[in-house]
Amino acid sequence: MARLVRSWILLLILQSFLVSIAFGSKEVEEFSEALLLKPLPDRKVLAHFHFENRAPPSNSHGRHHHLFPKAISQLVQKFRVKEMELSFTQGRWNHEHWGGFDPLSSMNAKPVGVELWAVFDVPLSQVDTSWKNLTHALSGLFCASINFLESSTSYAAPTWGFGTNSDKLRYGSLPREAVCTENLTPWLKLLPCRDKDGISALMNRPSVYRGFYHSQRLHLSTVESGQEGLGSGIVLEQTLTVVLQPDTTSVERNTQPSWSLNSLFGRKVVGRCVLAKSSNVYLQLEGLSGHELKNVDSEIEAHKLWKNADFELSLKPDRVLREISSFLFIFDIEKSSDSEPFDLGLTWKRPSKWLCQLAPLHASRFLMGSGNERGAIAILLKETESQEKLNLTNGRCTIKVNIFQIFPWYVKVYYHTLQIFVDQQKKTDSEVLKKINVSPSTDKVSSGMMEMMLELPCEVKSAAISIEYDKGFLHIDEYPPDANQGFDIPSALISFPDHHASLDFKEELGNSPLLSKFKEKSSVRSYTEVLLVPLTTPDFSMPYNVITITCTIFALYFGSLLNVIRRRIGEEERFLKSQAGKKKGGLKQLLSRFIAKIRGRPIEESSSSSELQSSVLSSKLIFKIILVAGAAAAWQYFSTDK
Amino acid sequence: MEEISDQLNPTSDTSGIMPEFDPKTMRSTKPGLKRLFITTSVLFSFLLGLPFLWKSVEIYRSPLPFHDIDSLSDQIESTPLRFHCHFHAVFVGFPSTDPDNLRSQIQDGINQLTHPSSQCGSCDFSLSVTIQNSDEQCSETLAYNSSTCSYRCGVIKRNVFGVGLDDSVDESLNDVFSSCSGHSGKMYSVVVVNKENANGEDEVKAVVGKRRHAWIVGSGLEERYGDMVARVSEIFVKVFMNSGREEDSIHGEFMPVGSDGRIVLSFSLLNSNPRDWVYDWDFQRIDETFLAPVTKALAPIANISVESQVLYHTPKSSFSSWDEKLQSYIFRTSDLPFFVNSNEWHLDTSAGASGRSKILQFVVYIPSGGECPLHLQLSNGKISKTNGFISPMWGGVIVWNPGNCDKDSERPIRNKISAQDLEQIVEVFLGQFRQLFGFKSEAIYTSGLGTYKILPSERGFTEWELDFLSRKHTCFNLHSCSTTLGSLSRLVQSLPRMIIKDEIGEQVKYSLKAAKLAQSNVSLGGYSSSASSSRDARSLAENAFFHPSIMSVSYFSYEHCFAVYSPFFLPVAGHIVIAALREWKRYKQEKAKYLKWLTRKKTA
């Protein structure tokens, strides 16, 4: 008996060991959801949804999946994508009021329309084909015209200006793409809970699209497993950033508007997505320096943090994290249920004002010049009230600025006209320009690209870069349907490689993908406005007009030439002479001449036979008319019968 | 100038000579031809230019072999494809009789059972019969096109049958006939064993094996020759030739193979409400252990790939009702069209599949807590045993109820479907998959003469079923190829302004070539080679028909052509034609005048 028991135990141990091998070593696909809420200084509220889906390294990618979307995995497998980011944005990020020096803005402030970049894991010669196939696949997947990025005139291969240094990187953007629900629905389809459950249930379409800014982003990267014979893992990060205006019911004008999730979105969270490993809601409050508390540990102090004279939260946070200039309240929505929905609210009691962190320089871009022939593009960098500027190189405080810009080929940029002004003073290239890389455009073949690195002194007030261009002519086939609207020049990317934005928490973070993302150092970047260049648009009926006019002239010339050739001058003169002999009443003669002209034969002598003649004439005329009508009918018949 | 002077002369000085000359109606000189010549030459040069203009606005059309296409479709219509099969009947333990007589009897029996107008993909058989008496001496008659592979007398021992399992009998029979492998066409054999020891039981057992063999075992069979002959011919025709299906139960058009010869099996596990419970499966293991042999076995017919996913929040689209008697929720078969919820089931067409692959969806539906257990009720009121259904050409659905329909406590955890349950599910899958191909999944085939036990294969399909499939598939492919090419040729002929690129012409050419090759392979008896070349023929034909350039149905239409060219040619042509007519008329007139003058001169 004892032996039996022992063997049983042995077996059990062995079994558990085997099970632990089978399941422990094999990682599983993981999904997590998070929502970050942040009141903005200009009485708006930012909501940032963050979903992360991880597929561990496996050989069965694209074939067997449990949580990870099959479509994305197949995309990665088929086109050998190493890293990719796709964003759909509507509205412009307000760098002055919504922040320019935090990870949130540098990662999620995107240019208007669609932006796509991808790094491939294929031989260099196949990168372009992979890119083209990828754009087509994505446009099918996301119901957008991403396939317009297929043509070589619409994308570029940045070398260092974009931030990722790889020669297998391709970048393209479509500023004019309209973003709406039809793009959000396929995006949501990639989430295991879609918008049925969990935090994503908040995405009420009317309230999301009523916002001032929304940007949905999909970022995927492959993680090499390092093991021989095992494929790579995939991390899929999906974010939706919305800036909303809470309904202002507060009487006082100065206080920030109070809000709750229900008032912002019209919905409440009734439970977490059961498939998510973690589902948290974060509330970030900036500029609470007045409440700098020494020890958060004590219960009363902590309580003071979320219920004080300035503001009050409707729920008790599970944790509070402190950052240099902000507090982060963490709520776990696990406890919420149908009967007790999670509805976080923030009530302001006193007027409060704060400033958000700004990028070292504020960038804007505009067009100069007038007319349809030439112009100039100017990028203006202005000083901000940013705190962090210092970057000492060779004992001098400098700010490094990277500018990455794509020009469509019909904007023919003259790179020698590049001028740089620092504090309204023209500087030579060697003074401020550290590095520049230019790839000129080829007509109808490829777009132009400019990458440059400036090194400006810290005390700079303003810096301007201008470059002149000629407007090209497009072939009549190349104009889009609404050619008179003008053509878009994609946003320029301004990045500060030496400035890194990250949230530096004093406490231990725990396992939260969103916070660990924020903790990573990311270089500060911002996109400029999209420019609208009016080009000369032709009259699109022009080819037909030209054809008709030239043909008519040719026909006239040809006809008259033929008439001249077969003219008999002597005969006509004799005829006129004989006519002159017979005097008639002026009017009658004119009439008879006119008739003669029409009939093309000499004037009849006898007036007696004119009656008969006219009847013959009328019958002939009728015959002619019938002939013409018959020809027309035949033409009609043959042309429609096909 | 000359003409004018010519005309001037008669009026000036002929009045004296010819008193009757009337300048209005007569002329003394021959009318000139110069202007007429100029105008007509211009007219003719225009007319000559017309063909060149026509040629210049012509669009490129690659010449298609219309005649060959027509002849191919005629050929396929008129003479159905017949494969060569070889049937071999072995009678063991029978007293020596004339094998030729027996052979003609079986032949008659087979001919009776086959339709006179045999459908496409049937067998063109040859038959050989061997009789082995109890002393293990043989008398045999071989088919006309006698094969090298013949049955070695005495190899089959009577006592093998009925002792061991059917599977081992099948294996031993395979060893006996293994020398026939590599034989052109396939050889099917039926062994009739007359057992000696008739210990009262009069039961006759008939088994069809996994390979290409069947056997009938019984005692006292020598008295029932006629019955045996009928049963042997029935096995040949109904089982081996028609694979046990009813005549035309499923047409060849329902062959669920994509036109590029690929099938994607997409398995989805649907958790209709993950708040109640969440189930996951280890599909990779299923794929490796159960599905890999099946996909390998079907490789000559289609290139099959397998993928799986788990989806959540996927309710079905219609409601079920609670049945008190059965203590379960009931979904009637009449409501099945409303089961699949295409709004919420994002089964996703696979991005890995190319455009024309066939995707078969297999769905395991786990009902939510509010409708558990869920059972499908047949129209006769019984509960479906498999709890699943198929939709031809789409796939199948299985409802799987979690063991006990108790909700998990508060927080649902991710359960795994147990291995036993998964195996059951896979069995139903395989049955559904076979059904999509038109096979039955019962282990017993019943006909008028008795029942036959059919041994199931672990690969899902037995060899004789695969043979049947490849025969049908070849036939279906060739048929579809010919109809596709036929429609292409009709389309091309009906649209004279359609651009046809060279690629299309090439594809049509190669498709015809592959179809010809398939036909010749069929007559040679090469099953897999004919199947693969027929697959090529079909996919090439489809490629030609769906070539992207075929959509560019020339927007440069006749109307456009007319609009561009008429502003020049219409006025100019008007001028020229009128001028030529005038000149011609004038020439006739003047000539008449001249003739008149001539006659006047003559009479004078």
Automatic annotation (TrEMBL), chain A:
Residues 1-24 form the signal peptide. Pfam families: Gpi16 (PF04113). The keyword Transmembrane applies. Keywords: Membrane, Signal, Transmembrane, Transmembrane helix. The keyword Acetylation does not apply. The chain crosses the membrane at residues 544-565, 621-638. It comes from the Eukaryota. This is GPI transamidase component PIG-T. It comes from Cardamine amara subsp. amara. The lineage of its organism: Eukaryota, Viridiplantae, Streptophyta, Embryophyta, Tracheophyta.
Automatic annotation (TrEMBL), chain B:
Signal peptide: none annotated. GO terms for biological process: GPI anchor biosynthetic process. Keywords: Endoplasmic reticulum, Glycoprotein, GPI-anchor biosynthesis, Membrane, Transmembrane, Transmembrane helix. It comes from Cardamine amara subsp. amara. This is GPI transamidase component PIG-S. It is found in: Endoplasmic reticulum membrane. Residues 1-15 have a biased composition (Polar residues). Belongs to the PIGS family. The keyword Transmembrane applies.
